[in-house]
Specification:
Blueprint lengths: L2 H10 L2 E6 L2 E7 L1 H26 L2 H13 L4
Antiparallel strand pairs: 1-2
Helix pairs in contact: 2-3
């Protein structure tokens, strides 16, 4: 994930941007919103892993591994 992608996910939840001289210097999360942000990051990472599996796995192994990766988001 790029820094811009991470910042965009942070903006999807309630985050206070800390700016110094007009430049983004930090992010302040409220406790519940930090958990929502973590879930967004984990979902994006799971999907990236599933795509790698799609590229390198074959046959029934591919289907099982992709399902297992995506199912982790439902646990």
């Amino acid at each position: 994930m790029t820094q811009d992608e991470i910042i965009e996910m942070a903006r999807q939840v309630r985050v206070d941007e800390i700016k110094v001289g007009g430049m983004l210097a930090g992010l302040h999360f409220h406790p519940k919103d930090l958990m929502d942000f973590a879930k967004l990051v984990a979902a994006k990472e799971r999907e990236a892993c599933a795509k790698i599996c799609d590229e390198f796995c074959y046959g029934s192994t591919k289907i099982l591994v992709e399902k297992a990766i995506r199912a982790r988001g439902k646990a």
